[in-house]
Amino acid sequence: GQLHEGLGGLRTIQAFNGQSAELARFASHAKAHEDAVVGAAWARGAVPGVMEVLAAAALAGALAYAASARLMEPEALLSLLTAVILVYQPVKDLGRVTQFAMQAGAAGERLFALLDLKHPVLDAPDAVPAPPLSESIRLEDVRFSYGDRPALDGVTLELKAGQVTALVGGSGGGKSTVTTLLLRFERPQAGRLLLDGVDMDRYTAASLREQLALVTQEPLLFQGSVLENLRYARPDATREDVEAAARVANADGFIRALPQGYDTRIGERGVTLSGGQRQRLCIARAVLARARVLVLDEATSSLDPESEREVQAALAAVLPGRTALVIAHRLSTVVNADVLHVMEAGRAVESGTHAELLQKGGRYAALWRMQTEGPVERGAA
């Protein structure tokens, strides 16, 4: 765990000159692990040794008593000794098998406990495949909490087909939780999610997910080629389909410039590509999925300005005419959305277009001024 953590945060450790502290922490963990392994080895080695000594002592004592008391004839005593020697090794091996069985039983118990965990969103016995979205997805008075922390507090909003809907606001407002519920990773604790006016609980989770393509803040790519990563969304897609999706996402140009083009291997998590290139591949993959709704969850928030411009250009080509849900902190990235909902404390406190919300002079207007003009200095005229 610490080794993986350290390699992943290598630059941060070096930036804060934390190498000595990390080495000390690693040495401490390694010593504790070493002590545990050595202790377990001594325990495993001591038990058979003690059993050998006790068995030999018991056998010697029994033979000595039988010989001194003349309880058996020498021939019978020799036969008994031979039988005991022949049986001893199989019995000892059986003891080892019992030890392994106990270890396997403990491991199996943990494994089956994991396998028996129930998914928070199970299909109803009479659930049917969802029809393609034609009108809207609606959240009605939806409430959801993570433990004791409320994430959504009676939120009501609508995503109309063919429109770009944006959720904006500060951290902790409940924006990403909306995505979690739409993708059926969790079920709302109160309220309803409706697809074209029908409760989503009537449909299978798999058929609902087929209608949503997700692009997250952290571009998730797999070790393999560009082509394999894009086809992850639709394994039966032809090469022409893949290239068409890449062109829509403004990714075809840089892909063809790679050493082997679409067959170039990009390493673990796409390490050989820039942040903007990775995100454009994720957008191309979402386009290739032919999903009804494109979900962009902070898709540009972790990018540098140049990479963000690349991704914004890709989105400008992808979004028009599509049904999309865009979650963003930076309001400049969603000014062209058909409708914006300002999320705060788990509720949609304002809704409208960019111009309408600025005219209202409410929470959205304050956020816009903060991001475009910067904080007003105290005492400024």
TrEMBL record:
InterPro entries of this UniProt entry? AAA+_ATPase, ABC1_TM_dom, ABC1_TM_sf, ABC_transporter-like_ATP-bd, ABC_transporter-like_CS, P-loop_NTPase, Type_1_exporter
Q: Which UniProt keywords apply?
A: ATP-binding, Cell membrane, Membrane, Nucleotide-binding, Transmembrane, Transmembrane helix, Transport
Where does the ABC transmembrane type-1 domain lie?
Answer: 1-103
Principal location = membrane
Q: Name one GO cellular component term.
A: plasma membrane
Recorded GO molecular functions are:
ABC-type transporter activity; ATP binding; ATP hydrolysis activity
Q: Which domain of life is it from?
A: Bacteria
UniProt subcellular location: Cell membrane
Pfam families hit by this protein: ABC_tran
Identify the residues that the record assigns to the ABC transporter domain, covering every copy: 137-370
**Record membrane topology:** Multi-pass membrane protein
State the protein's name.
ABC transporter ATP-binding protein
Species name for this entry?
Myxococcus llanfairpwllgwyngyllgogerychwyrndrobwllllantysiliogogogochensis
**Lineage, top ranks:** Bacteria, Pseudomonadati, Myxococcota, Myxococcia, Myxococcales
